[in-house]
Structures are given as structure tokens and as C-alpha cells.
Design a protein that fits this description.
By secondary structure, the chain is mostly helical. Helices cover 84% and strands 0% of the residues. The protein has helices spanning 14-47, 49-85, 89-124, 129-144, 146-161, 166-189, 193-222, 236-268, 272-308, 312-339, 341-346, 354-367, 371-386, 390-415, 417-421, 423-440. The longest helix has 37 residues, at 49-85. The mean pLDDT is 82.
Length: 446
């Protein structure tokens, strides 16, 4: 086994183990979000406000595909981590091969559905006519790159399950930096417009995916199995275990994406200016939320390994360490967003309209203080997922979603876009209380 990279999360002081494991994960997702933000940044500054609105508009739909990729990631990651903690290396390898095959079939189905239905999705969210063509073009190119998205996410999930958070960090650091350079080359240099933004992501994500998958296969080859252990190319019992984690995660993320699409349609009715401002602000928001979600995924891997080793008290100690860690990272982010909101929004839009700037800044002012609330929820969610308590995890998540959609629709009329922005804090607060209560009452066996 490659002991230099694979890390056993069942030994050592929980706080120290989590910091060492999760910090590279946090760095990885920062680079991943820089990767995503580059599209909006280049579109807004080198093409214009409408291009930024088009990329942001399409982004809400791409989150559906990301939800499926994330579900495959977390399903594989939790099961692989449990087998790793239990030292069942034959089942570990079978889990990886099973996930790769099942995810390939799922990805092909999504590509076909996406290419045939992208226009309908854009109409459903009331895409303004002036950004329709660019939104459709960006979305179609993005869909062509779905295999890269899926297999890269699976690879990073496997690394994390084996306790290796440094390798994904290195891949993302290189690929995200390259993406910015290629974005600028295609858009500013070759004047390819929104298509250049999409093709740059396609190219850089493709290279990262191939390298990550090859590294995973090489890593697996170094893990020695007992001669009595059988390694299968595909196992239906293990597929069922993976699906029990993956399907609820996919449903959770998909319903959140559908909710965001409904909210996006309400925002689009407020005009292109508000859509552009929201596109800039929500990128900044997603940078934080996705980062905290990734730390929650780290808690899932930590929990799964320790449950595989039969050590539930260590999971309890990990929760306290996880909350301390995530709040330590959260406080400076909240301060920067509140103090620099205008500068951050302007960074995305060259010469923004007054409406675009004010709507984006107000979003950050309203939502940012509640990062301390949602971060606590995501730590508890990570443990629920790692312990296989998916019904409780989904209950809290769906409550958040339903509240956000309902409040956005109700308050948009009397309060305008400010009413929509307040949907986030309310949903997060109620769901946080539920997630923490579910964690406190969680049975040791999951």
C-alpha cells in the first residue's frame, strides 16, 4: 500500500488529523471555485454584462449535472473509506471499478438528455432574449464535457477516501491556473466570445480528468490485497451500498439545483441588471458554500473510516474539532465579504450598471453573516452522510430548499430582489437546527 499518500483517519488526535486532512481539501475547492469563477470573471470583464448574465444563467442548470457527479463522488468515497477503515482492500478495489462503470452509464444518459433538453430548460427559467443564444451555446459545450466532470469527481472522492487530500489539491492548483490563462487567450486573444469561455473549461477539465484517473489506477495497483480476497470488475451488492449513499446525495443536490433554477426564474423576471448582479454575487457565495461543503465531505470520510473501524466515540470528538476548524476559516471570510462587497462584485463586471452593482452588494450584505450558521449545518451533514443516516440528512436539506423557494416567491412581489435574498438565511437557519438535532440523536451504529 502507498503509505506516503494514503492516510488512516482512525488514529491520532481528531483535531490534528482533521486539520491535516481538510486543509488541502479546502485549498482544492478554492482552486475549483477559481476554476468556475474564471468563466464569469472573463465573460464579465472582457465581453460584457450580458455575457456575464448568460454564463451565470446557464450555471444554475449546470448545477444539476454537478449534483449527479457529486453524488457519485460521495457514494464511492464513503464506501471506499469504510472498506479502507476496515482494511478490506479487495472490496475497496471492487468499489472503485463498480463506481467507474455505473457512473459512465449514468453520464452517457445525462449527456443525451442534456443536449436534447437544454433549450427547454433555458425557456423554463425565463431566460431573457438578449442572452438566450450565448446561454444555449455555453450550456451545450459544457454538456459535452460531462465525462470529464464525472470521472474527475470520482477520482478526487477516491483520493479523499484513502485519506489523501494533497493530490487533488495539486491537480486543481495547476488546472485552475491554466483555465484562467486559456480563458483569457480564447476570449481576449482569439475573440471567441462566450464559446471561448466554455471551450477553455472543457479543455482544462479534460486534461485534469485524464491525469487524475490514471493516478487513481496507479494508486490502486499499489494496494496489496490478501490472496483470499476477490477483486471483481463489478459487484451488485457493492453497487447497492454505493447507491444507498449516492442516490440520496444526488436527489439532495438535484432538488437544490431545481430550487435554484426556480429562484433563478424569479430573479430573471427582475431584469438583466439584477441577473448580472446576482450572477456575480452568487459566484462569491458558491465559493464559500462549496468550500464548506467540501470540508463536510472531509467529515464524511473521517466518519466513514472510524465507523468502519467501529469507533463511534471518535466521531463525536471529530464533530467538535470540525466545528472549531470550520468557524476558524469562516470568520475571516465573513469579514472580507462584508467589508469588500462592492469591490468583489465590481471585480466581475466591467463598468456595471447601478442596478447590477447594488443588487449584488445587497445579496452579500444579507447572506454573508449567516455563513456561521450554514457551516455548522454542513459539519453535522458530513457526519450524517458518513454514518449512512441519509433520511435525516435529506430531511434537513429539503426543508432548507422548500423554505428558500417559497420565501423567494412570496417576498419577491412586495420586496423585490431583497425579498429573494432573505430566502437564504431563513432556510439555512431552520435546516441547521434540524441537522444538529439529528446528529445529537444519531445512533452509534448509523
Amino acid at each position: 500500500m502507498d503509505k506516503n499518500r494514503n492516510k488512516d483517519l482512525t488514529v491520532g488526535k481528531p483535531e490534528t488529523v482533521l486539520w491535516r486532512f481538510c486543509l488541502p481539501l479546502f485549498g482544492s475547492i478554492i482552486f475549483q471555485q477559481i476554476y468556475n469563477i474564471a468563466d464569469s470573471l472573463v465573460a464579465g470583464r472582457f465581453i460584457g454584462e450580458n455575457a456575464l448574465a448568460a454564463v451565470g444563467n446557464s450555471y444554475e442548470i449546470t448545477l444539476i449535472f454537478i449534483a449527479f457527479a457529486f453524488g457519485c463522488n460521495i457514494g464511492c468515497s464513503v464506501i471506499v473509506a469504510q472498506f479502507f477503515g476496515a482494511k478490506k482492500y479487495g472490496d475497496l478495489k471492487t468499489s472503485v471499478y463498480t463506481t467507474l462503470i455505473a457512473s459512465g452509464v449514468l453520464c452517457a444518459a445525462l449527456m443525451l438528455s442534456g443536449l436534447l433538453g437544454s433549450g427547454g430548460l433555458l425557456r423554463m427559467i425565463h431566460t431573457p432574449g438578449e442572452i438566450w443564444a450565448d446561454s444555449k451555446l455555453y450550456l451545450d459545450i459544457y454538456i459535452l464535457g460531462l465525462p470529464f466532470l464525472f470521472f474527475y469527481n470520482i477520482a478526487t472522492g477516491i483520493f479523499s477516501a484513502l485519506g489523501d487530500s494533497k493530490t487533488p489539491f495539486l491537480f486543481l492548483a495547476v488546472s485552475s491556473t491554466s483555465n484562467i490563462a486559456v480563458d483569457i487567450l480564447f476570449v481576449a486573444g482569439l475573440e471567441m466570445g462566450v464559446a471561448g469561455v466554455a471551450w477553455a473549461t472543457f479543455l482544462c477539465q479534460g486534461v485534469s480528468c485524464v491525469l487524475a484517473v490514471l493516478t487513481v489506477l496507479k494508486r490502486l495497483a499499489k494496494i496489496r490485497t490478501d490472496g483470499r480476497e476477490r477483486v471483481a470488475v463489478f459487484s451488485f451488492p457493492i453497487f447497492k451500498k454505493i447507491a444507498q449513499i449516492a442516490v440520496p446525495s444526488i436527489l439532495q443536490q438535484s432538488f437544490i439545483s431545481v430550487g435554484n433554477i426556480i429562484i433563478q426564474s424569479v430573479i430573471n423576471d427582475c431584469g438583466v441588471g439584477v441577473t448580472a448582479g446576482y450572477s456575480a454575487a452568487v459566484k462569491l457565495n458558491n465559493l464559500v458554500i462549496t468550500s464548506f461543503t467540501t470540508l463536510g465531505n472531509g467529515m464524511s470520510n473521517y466518519t466513514a473510516q472510524n465507523i468502519g473501524a467501529g469507533n463511534w466515540p471518535r466521531v463525536r470528538a471529530g464533530f467538535k474539532a470540525g466545528v472549531k476548524m470550520i468557524w476558524t476559516l469562516c470568520v475571516p471570510i465573513v469579514a472580507v465579504y462584508l467589508l469588500c462587497a462592492k469591490v468583489l462584485v465590481t471585480f466581475f463586471i466591467n463598468d456595471p450598471s447601478e442596478l447590477a452593482l447594488s443588487s449584488g452588494v445587497q445579496f452579500l450584505y444579507i447572506v454573508t453573516p449567516f455563513y456561521l450558521v450554514v457551516s455548522l449545518k454542513l459539519v453535522a451533514d458530513g457526519i450524517l452522510r458518513g454514518a449512512g443516516l441519509m433520511k435525516r440528512f435529506m430531511a434537513a436539506t429539503f426543508t432548507d430548499l422548500i423554505l428558500r423557494v417559497a420565501i423567494a416567491g412570496i417576498l419577491a412581489g412586495p420586496m423585490g430582489y431583497l425579498g429573494i435574498w432573505w430566502a437564504w438565511p431563513v432556510g439555512w437557519t431552520v435546516a441547521m437546527v434540524m441537522s444538529v438535532c439529528f446528529y445529537i440523536k444519531a445512533p452509534a451504529a448509523g
